[in-house]
Design goal:
With 404 residues, the chain is of the alpha/beta class. The protein is built from seven helices and 28 strands. A hairpin with a 2-residue loop joins strand 20 and strand 21.
Length: 404
């Protein structure tokens, strides 16, 4: 067996970053910038009000109070999207809506809550300080300022900022296109009655969904029978059309060797036994420049292997680095014990983690821990990393890999 970190390092070494492309903002969510983004404009581009109220000259309101409000003549109204049509002179005010441009001569906003009207006058009951409630040009981003550096993972807020500076496209590392293939004569799909020895193909849908959730483009390569020519054809289609291939099944000791045979013919593969449970068997290599992941056939092992190896490798291809490659790790409290026996492996128990009153994550098992029990994996929102030894006692600290 090899350590988890060694296996992970082998995978990352074979996952080369994809090329940069110019992508429309609407398609860039979850992508990573390949170059710094510098704004050509000020945001906001003009001085505007942050509040509904009246644009005034601060000097006209400095003596205002509840007993003696400042009385100003209202000479106009400015709505958001409209341009002021006159300046504000001494003793005057302009009614103004949030986001509307500041009229010339005004240097403060008297918010509507401290005003009342009498005829064509507004009564201001508190002093309005110069600059109060005014958004100044470049207050968010100044022209020539770097909005985001290279290597920024774009979330919804980032895309909003890019729209605010007039960008229609952004340079990002291309989204990974991942083919997903299941293998095995025992696999069937849909609601057809199962014959002796048959099982329904859960891995392909699960892995396709994990890839979509992780921001990758996916290609469903179907299920291949344990037939050398069929497997060779499926792998060939994947290599021709995808950036990476994820295949489940055919990597354990004792499996039919068609997947191994074909992959060893066409690429440089490493067939590893990793010191973890579940997901000990792992295959990884490069075929014609495309990353190929061979994951175990047991459904829980397949999902755990995806989280530990395939997801980080594919995210690296999309430009993610460092801690951003992996799910978030935190330390929690074991509300129940996690018993185990020494076996030289790191155990990854499926658990439910919830925030406690002490501000820490408290965890309990999500169910049975055998690698074929998919429901317990579906109920889990974290993996508990239980090191080799006798386990973790109730109330003990436990490291967690958060899945959501």
């Amino acid at each position: 067996m090899i350590p988890l970190e060694e296996a992970r390092a082998r995978v990352l070494a074979g996952c080369a970053r994809l090329e940069a492309v110019s992508t429309p903002l609407a398609q860039a969510l979850g992508c990573v910038t390949s170059a710094a983004v510098v704004s050509d404009d000020n945001v906001p581009s003009f001085a505007n009000t942050a509040m509904d109220g009246y644009a005034v000259r601060a000097a006209d309101t400095e003596a205002a109070s509840e007993a003696e409000p400042a009385r100003l003549v209202v000479v106009g109204t400015v709505a958001a999207g409209a341009a002021p049509d006159r300046p504000v002179g001494p003793g005057q005010a302009v009614r103004i809506m949030t986001g509307a441009p500041m009229p010339e001569g005004a240097d403060a906003i008297a918010i509507v809550e401290v005003t009342s009207t009498e005829g064509d006058q507004v009564l201001v009951r508190q002093p309005a300080r110069a600059g109060q409630h005014i958004r100044h040009p470049g207050g968010d981003i100044a022209a020539g300022q770097e909005a985001f550096p290279a290597g920024t993972a774009l979330g919804p807020g980032h895309l909003g900022v890019l729209a605010s500076i007039g960008r229609e496209k952004v340079d990002v590392y291309r989204r990974a296109r991942v083919g997903v293939l299941s293998t095995g004569d025992e696999l069937v799909e849909g609601s057809v009655p199962l014959q002796p020895g048959q099982i329904r193909d859960t891995n392909r849908l699960t892995l396709l969904s994990l890839c979509r959730q992780s921001g990758f483009d996916v290609v469903d390569l179907g299920a291949a029978r344990d037939d050398e020519d069929e497997i060779r054809g499926a792998i060939g289609r994947a290599v021709a059309t995808c950036d990476a291939l994820i295949a489940s099944g055919g990597v354990s000791m004792g499996d039919f060797d068609y997947v191994k045979k074909v992959l060893d013919e066409v690429g440089e593969m490493a067939w590893m036994q990793v010191g973890i449970r579940p997901a000990k068997p792992l295959a990884f290599g490069v075929v014609e420049g495309k990353a190929v992941f061979g994951l175990p056939g047991n459904p829980v092992s397949s999902m755990v292997s995806f989280e530990l190896f395939a997801r980080p490798g594919l995210r690296q291809m999309m430009g993610f680095t460092g801690a951003a490659l992996d799910r978030t790790r935190v330390r929690g409290v074991a509300d129940e014990g996690f018993a185990r026996r020494p076996d030289g492996k790191l155990h990854l128990d499926r658990v439910v983690a919830a925030a406690g009153d002490d501000g820490r994550f408290h965890v309990r098992s999500s169910g049975g821990q055998e690698s074929h029990l998919l429901r317990a994996m579906a109920l889990a929102n974290a993996l508990a990393l239980v090191p080799d030894g006798d386990g973790i006692a109730p109330g003990g600290d436990v490291d967690l890999l958060l899945l959501g």
